[in-house]
Amino acid sequence: MEVVIVPDAEAGGELIAEAIAALLRRKPEALLGVATGSTPLPIYQALTAKVREGAVDASKARIAQLDEYVGLPQGHPESYRSVVLREVVEPLGLTEESFLGPDGTAEDVQAACDEYDKALAWAGGVDLQLLGIGTDGHIGFNEPCSSLASRTRIKTLTQQTRVDNARFFAGDITQVPHHVITQGIGTILDARHLVLLATGEGKADAVAATVEGPVASVVPASALQLHRHATVVVDEAAASKLKLADYFRHAYDNKPDWQGI
């Protein structure tokens, strides 16, 4: 696992955006897996700036969704499809035709999950999957003790997750769905390259358990240790509990022509 310690969230966003740009220069039609929430926003902003400056052409890129609420109507502003369209697809100048995501309005939700896994495979697989991490070590909506071999499936949100997400629904927890579709850990591990960004002291324990702890379902993100190409980018605060922080800094500083990832 590659671990890169950066000064702050902006530096992390710039670093990962350049890695995505390098991928698009090699493979213009790459399938990018994206995450929602506030953590990846610096990545999308930096990548959008590169596209607008002409530093990279993203016109042939394709976008894949990590998770989705169940039951929100099409076009709801807080559906993850709407969020990805608003924060990624539209700023990069792409169209909805470039976008893959699970159907959270399907009558048969598990069938929709199975179809999404098939769609990702038919698309050639995800080239680079962006991930965030929860304070309990979850990735996507794979909460602690999720199977490390799990595929895309429906999950019930914990009360704490619904409380945390109420801020996106004007603080009204009654508007937060109880269920989501999420790529399983096994589905996530199918991607060719996994890139996890974590910032802030609140993520320090989860990052340390992910990078330096044992592989265990109680810390779902620890499954990244099993991946052939996983990169963890953290700011100084999120790296504060890493025993090998100095080693990771030295490895990064001494990598000539390091393109990230």
UniProtKB/TrEMBL annotation:
GO molecular function, one term: identical protein binding
Function: Catalyzes the reversible isomerization-deamination of glucosamine 6-phosphate (GlcN6P) to form fructose 6-phosphate (Fru6P) and ammonium ion.
PROSITE patterns associated with the record: GLC_GALNAC_ISOMERASE
Family affiliation: Belongs to the glucosamine/galactosamine-6-phosphate isomerase family. NagB subfamily.
Name under which the protein is recorded: Glucosamine-6-phosphate deaminase
Species of the source: Streptomyces smaragdinus
Superkingdom as given in the UniProt entry: Bacteria
Catalytic activities: alpha-D-glucosamine 6-phosphate + H2O = beta-D-fructose 6-phosphate + NH4(+)
Catalytic site: 67, 136, 138, 143
GO cellular component: cytoplasm
